[in-house]
User: Fold this.
Amino acid sequence: MHTLLHYTNRLYALVERFWHATRTWKIVVSLIILTFLLSIGIIECKRQDWLPGSIAASIPENHFYAVHLAFSMLLVIEVVGLVFVIARSVADSVGKQFEILSLILLRQAFEAFVEFEEPIRWVEFNRPVVEILVNAVGSLLIFIALGIYYRIQKHQPITADEEEQYRFVGMKKMVSLLLLVIFTALGVDHTIRYMIQDEVYSFFSTFYTILIFSDVLLMLISLRYCSTYHVVFRNSGFALGTVVIRLALTAPPIFNVILGVGAAGFVIVLSLAYNAFSPEIAEEDRIRIV
Assistant:
């Protein structure tokens, strides 16, 4: 087991170093910018009838599709970032999930513009304006909630035993790498389906469904190193927060924001209660299951 964790740590460090490298970040951001500009150009070419009919048939006519595509690529970056946060802190990974949700709500606000003909006229715009504003305000409220959430977090090792802590972090890194493989396969499959115009599923809804199971798995793994009630309850509550986020992604307009903001409020209250009422867990009180 120790050998497996050793190679897991080495692989994780290699992948993380590559992803967080300044060169990698610049390349990824440049790709998003290039894709955004090319999308606008290609859409405009279709609007001017400069594309062959076979190609034009699969190209949207609204320039806001370029915004949608750019936001989708940005969200993919956030998903990869979440994978690496999981190994560092369970609490921070929950915060990252809400960061992604806030960006999804912003993207949904922009998606409403796709339904309008250009140039946008108020006659068409006045009906969905409520949905746009609700998504925008919802993302802002989650942004504010995240500021509170991160500020109240108190990070401490799950166990005082350094060897046990090493194993626990190694197990989290193993889960992170597994998630990275799953999300990569999911992204490739989703892209291929979109390109061949096959039935496309919701990538981010599927992503959060997988996160529910990974959160529960991490909670169960933590039991091996600390069975204290307060820790178990907090981690289970975090998993429930992920479930509510998943529901928010499939809920109708307005209800999705209510669920998302409600979930953010829930994890804040949960963290406050954990900080206020959980005792300082002394080494002799930690129960390790071997």
